[in-house]
Amino acid sequence: MFDDSGYGSDRYVYVDGTRHLSGFVRTLRPVGAETGAQFEERMDVLARRLSAMQDVRSFTVEIVRRGGAAVECVVDVVLKVPAPAPIPSDGGQSGPTGARVSPRGSRGGQKHGRLALGLNGI
Fold first, then answer.
1. How confident is the model at residue 116 (pLDDT cuts 50, 70, 90)?
2. SS3 content of the chain, % helix, strand, coil (to 5)
3. pLDDT at residue 120 is higher than 50
4. Can you tell me the distance from the alpha carbon of 108 to that of 103, in angstroms, rounded to the nearest whole number?
5. Rounded distance, CA 14 to CA 70, Å?
């Protein structure tokens, strides 16, 4: 549902020592030549899809405007039942800022040698 054009955070609750995903926040921006109106329409479709999901308790959609134009959308989702969420292996190394980076000396095909952070299918 969410693609790699956004970024965000995940909320976890620990139950009897086990990590569970309880919700997440994603920040999305217009892509390519998408107008503000097209972006808002895309966010409306996303909201309708979220409202149809049985495992979503609630969510908010906040449209951020600059100079009157929609430039960003923050989607905050709360799940009905926290889902077990073990820590996945990213296969990379953590840099000083916590960003995943390729091994020393390798650019990994990315600008400045950093690996893009995906949304892991969420």
1. very low
2. 15, 45, 40
3. no
4. 8
5. 36
Task: Report whether 26 contacts 7 (CB < 8 A).
Answer: yes
- Collapse the DSSP code of 51 into the 3-class scheme (helix H, G, I; strand E, B; otherwise coil) and give the result: helix
Contact 9, 2 (CB under 8 A): no
Q: What is the pLDDT of residues 39-84, one digit of tens each?
A: 999 999 999 999 999 999 999 999 999 999 999 999 999 999 999 9
| DSSP structure class, residue 55 | T
Residue 76's DSSP bridge partners are 25, 60
% of the chain beyond a pLDDT of 70: 70
Strands 7-15 and 18-28 come out as antiparallel
Both tokens of 106, joined, read: 């390798």
Of the candidates 74, 83, 32, 31, which has an alpha carbon nearest to the alpha carbon of residue 55?
Answer: 83
| DSSP code, position 116 | P
In Å, the largest CA–CA distance within the chain is 48
> Which of 77, 73, 72 is closest to 51 using CA atoms?
77
